[in-house]
Amino acid sequence: QVQLVESGGGLVQAGGSLRLSCAASGLTFSRTAMGWFRQASGKEREFVAAIDRSGRLTDYQDSVKGRFTISKDNAKSTVTLQMNSLKPGDTAVYYCASSSDGGIAVKYDYWGQGTQVTVSS
After folding, report:
1. Nearest C-alpha neighbor of 96 from the set 34, 43, 40
2. CB burial of residue 65 (10 Å; 0-12, 13-18, 19+)
3. Rounded to whole angstroms, what are the CA distances from 119 to 18, 76, 93?
4. In whole angstroms, what is the distance from residue 36 CA to residue 46 CA?
5. How many angstroms separate the CA atoms of 104 and 106, rounded?
6. Residue 21 phi, psi dihedral angles, 5° rounding
7. pLDDT tens digits for range 110-120
C-alpha cells in the first residue's frame, strides 16, 4: 500500500534551519509529483511547495520563496523540504503528499501523517 512518512520536524529558534524529509513506498516515485502543505493551529491547511515528477519544475507559496527549497530524489524515493531563515509564522504541522498525475497544482492522492515544526522567537 502507498505510504508517506515525514520526518525532521522539531523546535528551532527564529532564523534557524530545518530539513524535512518524506519517504514514499508503494508507488512508482519517478512518475509521481510531490507537494508539501502545512496547517497551523486554528487555521486551514495551506500549500507550501510542489515539485513535478522529474524534479525539474517547482512551485512555492510566496511567503516561503527564497527561504524554502523542495527537492526530489527518485533513486531514494524521497522528497525534501529545506527550510532556512525560519520565522515564528512557519510554525505548523507539515504534510507531504503525492500525485499520480505527475504535475504540480493537481489533485493529491495520498498524504503523510505530518511532522510538527515549531519556531520560537
Report:
1. 34
2. exposed
3. 10, 29, 12
4. 9
5. 6
6. -125, 150
7. 999 999 999 99
Give the amino acid at 105: A
CA distance 19 to 21: 7
pLDDT attached to residue 106: 79
Please report the beta strands in the chain, taking only residues with DSSP state E, as ranges in sequence order: 3-7, 10-13, 18-25, 33-39, 46-51, 58-60, 68-73, 78-83, 92-99, 110-111, 115-120
- The predicted-structure confidence for 75-103, as pLDDT tens digits, reads as follows 999 999 999 999 999 999 999 999 998 88
| Cβ atoms within 10 Å, residue 29 | 20
Cell numbers given for 5:
512518512
Q: What is the pLDDT of residue 69?
A: 98
Q: How many percent of the chain have pLDDT more than 70?
A: 99
